[in-house]
Each structure stands twice: as structure tokens, then as C-alpha cells.
Design goal:
Blueprint: E1 3-5, H1 15-19, E2 25-29, E3 35-39, H2 50-54, E4 60-62
Antiparallel strand pairs: 1-4, 2-3
Amino acid sequence: MPAKVDPNKCEGIGACKEVCPTAVFDLKDDGKGNMKSVATRPDDCIECGLCVDACPMEAITIE
């Protein structure tokens, strides 16, 4: 399963985007003026877990 971001935990710092070797993530406005990480290319996820380790809010899971 590809990486999933919990928008309730994500603070949009972009650590996942920086470490992802396949560019799965983008930062997007949630419509409330907050930036959130979004897995916009989930089919490219290789389930390496780098994003999970990089996220200080523990907002990303790979199931």
C-alpha cells in the first residue's frame, strides 16, 4: 500500500517531500490557508518508509 498522510496531523513542513526518492508528495493548500502534504502520485510509492521516518508529526503511514 502506498504512503498515506493524515491531514489532521500534518503541519505541512514538507520533510516527506524532501526525502521521497520517487516524488510522491506535494504541498497543497487545504482550503483553510494551511499547507498540507498530499500523496499526489501514490502509484509511484515504493514503500521505502523514508517519509514515515522523516515526519516529526507521525502523520504518514504505510499499510
